[in-house]
Amino acid sequence: MKAIICTKYGPPDVLQLKDVEKPTPKDNEVLIKIHATTVTKGDVLLRSLSFPLRLVFRLAFGLGKNRILGHELAGEIEEVD
Q1: Domain count, the chain
Q2: Per residue in 49-81, pLDDT tens?
Q3: Residues near 68 by Cβ (< 8 Å), separated by ≥ 6?
Q4: Which of 9, 13, 12, 11 is nearest to 57 (CA)?
Q5: Are 9 and 74 in contact (CB under 8 A)?
Q6: pTM greater than the 0.85 cutoff
Q7: How far apart are CA 9 and CA 34, in angstroms?
Q8: How would DSSP label each residue in 49-62?
Q9: Which has the closest alpha carbon to 10: 42, 44, 41, 38?
Q10: Which of 24, 53, 58, 67 could form a cystine bridge with 49, CB 3.0-4.6 A?
Q11: Radius of gyration of the chain (CA)
Q12: Alpha helices in the chain, H assignment, sequence order
């Protein structure tokens, strides 16, 4: 599947369209085929944080944990586990 990946902090040109492995839902999770999503102010701020806030967010959330930004979406459930 294709996804926009945030590989590092910075302006919008740090985002890259890449092929990623389709996730498999774990217990009590669903896989959603996304038709539309948003880019919120929070996504922009998280990606472009200044150094002191970047360190706090990196320690708390870690950019490496989930490189695909976004939390709001519209789609259909594809798989349930």
Answers
A1: 1
A2: 655 666 666 666 655 556 777 778 899 999 998
A3: 3, 4, 5, 6, 20
A4: 9
A5: no
A6: no
A7: 25
A8: --HHHHHHHHHHT-
A9: 44
A10: 53
A11: 14
A12: 41-47, 51-60
